[in-house]
């Protein structure tokens, strides 16, 4: 655990865990201030968990959450108030410590010379030069000049970001590329369904970010605060500025756990779990193994969500485990779906319905989870069926698998890049921004009407890379994305319905029907999911080897 002392009374650190609290007490800290909002990362404990552990050790804990990279004057005031009210020394933390250092710097700027602040934060390992510029500029970060400049800047080092960087490097090895992402760990998120089903181990879905960034690509380990596309500038945590010739935006989406009342407080306890979080997927399997009787609820929020089949995948794998144990007759499976259909592409529904019937699951459409009482094991849903008055229903449960509501990240939604719904506004074929010609987007954050899956990013990355290289050469776009997405629906252990489709629900099978008929459960598709797709992800997709993902030539458009 790294405690970085800025002043005799204030230290900052990256994200802490519950197990770190004893060391924090031993180091003499009397209080903790959390500057990281709950639900920001897939491997992040909630503030409530941290607070409970701190109180057990006699340490005061305060929650002053600040959106990544977006330190406002109000945030600084709240941080200052917390500092004034708690006993010292204090340990403040966020994802990397930068937000906490920024808050302290701006708070101290009212009474301490800026050069002194810079020296103190530099000694702790944080560069607050951008904060100094913000102070000197009346509270606004200037973007006419930058701290660094690159030919291509990529925001986000998830599946889309690393893949497009690798695809660009394979086409233009001399291109100066930077990836901006604060995360230390990169996750193979499609594997979490398998973790929740007892097939994969959670640690096998994670690798260090540094081991995956393509050779020759600069990794800027920071969060993005804002975009100023008119100045070709990205503002980072700590008010630093990175300039670009071309920008690729792919930070993924935000899992909005806080939108469901009571959910954050009970996640990981009281039988409430989710395969959408790295640390909770193993808990799903624990609950499934332990359950002998009772009611199991599986929820799905309104679209769009990443991997729309994941909520029901959890239901099928759980149902299969109970079926094999001969416990299914004592378990009531309820699927609560905010939408009106089981799956958006009708060709796959008959096969899925066979498994709904096999597991005797009840389908409840137009049911949207709005609150959870974990200790009482009750969940409340808003029910909005067509042509009927909206109502609410409260259901008791013994186990509940939750798929959280999902939105674009906050720094995207408030940016000039966003459409009215908050997603990055792109041409659905070329993936180029509709308003800014030197910006592209891919992955879950953009607004093309495709399924938000890793398989979609696998196809999108070469398209974006090809079009950027064409743009550098002074040519128009040459490649198009056809909306391809894949959802391997794990209907039982050993069989998968391999849904592959493009824009408009058009089927886009990758294999001959004689090998894999995607509309029927298949052992071959299971082998693909379990044995082939993880190494393809790590060793091909993230390394620019475009296996079955070569860019499709752009069709001429009618004027």
TrEMBL record:
<dbReference type="InterPro" id="IPR005939">
    <property type="entry name" value="BLH_phosphatase-like"/>
</dbReference>
<dbReference type="Pfam" id="PF04273">
    <property type="entry name" value="BLH_phosphatase"/>
</dbReference>
<dbReference type="InterPro" id="IPR015904">
    <property type="entry name" value="Sulphide_quinone_reductase"/>
</dbReference>
<feature type="domain" description="Beta-lactamase hydrolase-like protein phosphatase-like">
    <location>
        <begin position="3"/>
        <end position="109"/>
    </location>
</feature>
<dbReference type="InterPro" id="IPR036188">
    <property type="entry name" value="FAD/NAD-bd_sf"/>
</dbReference>
<protein>
    <submittedName>
        <fullName>TIGR01244 family phosphatase</fullName>
    </submittedName>
</protein>
<dbReference type="InterPro" id="IPR029021">
    <property type="entry name" value="Prot-tyrosine_phosphatase-like"/>
</dbReference>
<dbReference type="Pfam" id="PF07992">
    <property type="entry name" value="Pyr_redox_2"/>
</dbReference>
<feature type="domain" description="FAD/NAD(P)-binding">
    <location>
        <begin position="152"/>
        <end position="268"/>
    </location>
</feature>
<dbReference type="InterPro" id="IPR023753">
    <property type="entry name" value="FAD/NAD-binding_dom"/>
</dbReference>
